[in-house]
Prior knowledge:
Layout: H1 11-15, H2 33-41, E1 44-51, E2 56-61, E3 66-71, E4 78-84, E5 87-91, H3 94-101, E6 110-112, E7 120-127, E8 140-143, H4 151-158, H5 166-178, H6 182-186, E9 193-201, E10 208-211, E11 220-225, E12 229-235, E13 255-261
Antiparallel strand pairs: 1-13, 2-12, 3-11, 3-13, 4-5, 4-9, 4-12, 6-7, 7-11, 8-9, 9-10
Bound molecules: zinc ion.
Zinc ion binds at residues 79, 148-149, 165-166, 236, 238, 245.
Amino acid sequence: MSHPSSPPADAEARRAVAPVICYPTETLPRPDLGLYQRARAGATKVAEVMVPARDAAVFQVAAGQFFRISSIEGPQVGDLNLWNQHDISERFYSGKTRALHGTHVTTGERLWTNLPSLRPMATIIADTLEWYGIDRYGGSVHDVIGTRCDPYTGHLLSGDPYHHCCHSNLTRALAGHLDVPLPEAEAHVHDVLNVFMCTGFTRDTGQYFMKASPVQPGDYLEFFAEIDLLGALSACPGGDCSSQHSSDTAACFPLLVEIYAPAQGALAGWRPPARNAYDRSHGA
Ligand SMILES: [Zn+2]
């Protein structure tokens, strides 16, 4: 096979140009993690939702409350969708969260909403897998690079209908919660935060890869809700994603979501962030 283009004489010099961070985050409003963690220390559990294996469940968290996603019975990854509880057209924006914080998120980083709101909807306040860092393959945990397993891609690649992909699980759960037809709910399902999933891009071909998640029962990822949230979490049919997804072959386990409310006055002075203040005139 011929190469589509031959390299110029200065190819190495051009490749050697140092990268520039697209979005330096020095001017990004910083969460007051100390305030959140102090409020969390005095918080009490107000609700819990069990997410069955190969299925999804919804949960609600008021602004100023906390939610924890835990591995309980065995290594399992979860696909998380989040919406503004009062206006589900405002939802988690995986792409911009990735652009701001990188391919994987951990303590102190935030989940942002879509345009035109673009504001923090949740802040990560604890991550028991933070120790993992970035492994020798370029893999790390809790990614915002994957989309979610879905039956359309499955059909494209294998032709098999499989109904318990995260996309379908999230769609059924949201439709049930909103009491709307499946196609209406499906339109609101979006690219996820892959909780506990260990992923990266291969350095040689740039392909998206997954590997066995380091998660074990007892591990958790915990968030502070910046706005009133509606969440949906799918316990991925890939289980720990060590081999395959979009089938019933992997060992799968439930996930636990727990909601905590802070003590009265613990968040004194804190207010939910406003929607983005850009005037939306777009130069017209
Ligand atoms: Zn999945």
